[in-house]
Amino acid sequence: DVKVTQSSRYLVKRTGEKVFLECVQDMDHENMFWYRQDPGLGLRLIYFSYDVKMKEKGDIPEGYSVSREKKERFSLILESASTNQTSMYLCASGRTDSPYTFGSGTRLTVV
Amino acid sequence: AQSVTQLDSHVSVSEGTPVLLRCNYSSSYSPSLFWYVQHPNKGLQLLLKYTSAATLVKGINGFEAEFKKSETSFHLTKPSAHMSDAAEYFCVVSDLTSGTYKYIFGTGTRLKVLA
């Protein structure tokens, strides 16, 4: 089975901190995605990457950046965390013609 | 642009009764459609997918969905609800307009199963 692993299940950070959320997949997928999930809003795409060192903005990229130095790893970076970035963050990976596989999510609280 | 609308934010059913979760989509292309389920504090799990092979799609745990092009619908059904079906369900359409395989999610339907 494809595995998508998010490094932290729960995270509490202070306002203004730089935050790294890590995601690793083990099936050589070219596409990787970061979503945030908020009640009533569903999942919204932050950034995605379809190849190493490539990145594309999603629907809500403001306040975030990403890094993909290796094919299996896709990192989401909050340059200066703010309370409105408190959310559930979900990473996914997939091939272009197959369904995504999701990680278990990281619930981030910014205080 | 593609979009997906889940018509109910919450659905309650009694155990053993049928489940219907409604989803309408908008797409300029022949879409790929999916249903995912999310149990509390978990990631999303694929229930089923439609990719134009057959209009009635069977998924895991007894769920199925029917693609109706004339109604632009992809409703999820199950004949008999089980307590373990209580979860949030997401209808998803794939976005091929950008040349990459992005998903567009509905806002979710939370299913409650009453004993």
Provide the fold topology.
The complex is a heterodimer of chains A (111) and B (115).
Chain A: E1 4-6, E2 10-13, E3 19-25, E4 31-38, E5 42-49, E6 56-57, E7 64-70, E8 73-78, E9 87-94, E10 101-102, E11 106-110
Parallel strand pairs in A: 2-11
Antiparallel strand pairs in A: 1-3, 3-8, 4-5, 4-9, 5-6, 7-8, 9-10, 9-11
Chain B: E1 3-6, E2 10-14, E3 19-21, E4 23-26, E5 33-38, E6 44-50, E7 56-58, E8 64-68, E9 73-78, E10 87-95, E11 102-105, E12 109-114
Parallel strand pairs in B: 2-12
Antiparallel strand pairs in B: 1-4, 3-9, 5-6, 5-10, 7-8, 8-9, 10-11, 10-12
Key features?
heterodimer; A: 111 residues; mainly beta; seven-stranded mixed beta sheet; four-stranded antiparallel beta sheet; 11 strands; 54% strand; globular; B: 115 residues; six-stranded mixed beta sheet; 12 strands
Describe the protein.
The complex is a heterodimer of chains A (111) and B (115). Chain A is mainly β and 111 residues long. Chain A is built from no helices and eleven strands. Chain A has strands at 4-6, 10-13, 19-25, 31-38, 42-49, 56-57, 64-70, 73-78, 87-94, 101-102, 106-110. In chain A, strands 2, 4, 5, 6, 9, 10 and 11 form a seven-stranded mixed beta sheet that branches. The model of chain A has no long low-confidence stretch (mean pLDDT 93). By secondary structure, chain B is mainly beta. Helices cover 0% and strands 54% of the residues of chain B. Chain B is globular. Classes of the chains: A mainly beta (111), B mainly beta (115). The A-B interface holds A 4, 31, 33, 35, 40-45, 48, 50, 56, 58, 90, 92, 94-97, 99-105, 107 and B 9, 34, 36, 41-46, 49, 90, 98, 100-103, 105-108.
